[in-house]
Write a sequence for this structure.
């Protein structure tokens, strides 16, 4: 399973809340992965104007307030064209099921994708940060 979305959220929360420099190396340690993987995801987040960095200065910062970063925007940053569900390619057109499978299931798949994105749009980075501190308090 692809984890780019959860890693992107991890990166954004870390950047927002750390008192350390949010460098690729520090992010990699927090995520428990390698720096090159972090650089790929931070590149996507920079392209989407969610984070920024300054030449000659180490580390990343949020490009806007956590309240302004909807989780749907983060999802679209790391998966710009991904379909949540995809009908298999090249079904047998001579089969009555294969001939119509896309028409049969695509509307349900589209509704599921819309519901998923809508649910993400109802949450933002600030919500995750609030929940982080609730979790820490409960331990």
């Amino acid at each position: 399973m692809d984890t780019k979305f959860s890693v992107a959220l991890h990166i954004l929360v870390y950047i927002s809340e750390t008192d350390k420099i949010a460098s690729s190396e520090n992010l990699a340690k927090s995520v428990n992965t390698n720096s090159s993987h972090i650089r790929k995801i931070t590149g996507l987040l920079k392209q989407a104007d969610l984070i920024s960095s300054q030449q000659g200065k180490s580390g990343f910062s949020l490009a806007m307030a956590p309240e302004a970063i909807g989780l749907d925007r983060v999802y679209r940053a790391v998966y710009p064209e991904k379909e949540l569900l995809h009908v298999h390619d090249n079904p047998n057109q001579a089969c009555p099921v294969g001939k119509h499978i896309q028409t049969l299931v695509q509307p349900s798949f589209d509704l599921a994708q819309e519901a998923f994105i809508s649910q993400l749009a109802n949450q933002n980075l600030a919500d995750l940060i609030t929940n982080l501190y609730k979790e820490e308090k409960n331990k």
Observations:
- The chain has one domain: 4-138.
- The domain at 4-138 is CATH 1.10.10.10 (Arc Repressor Mutant, subunit A).
- Strands lie at 51-52, 61-62.
- The chain has a mean pLDDT of 94.
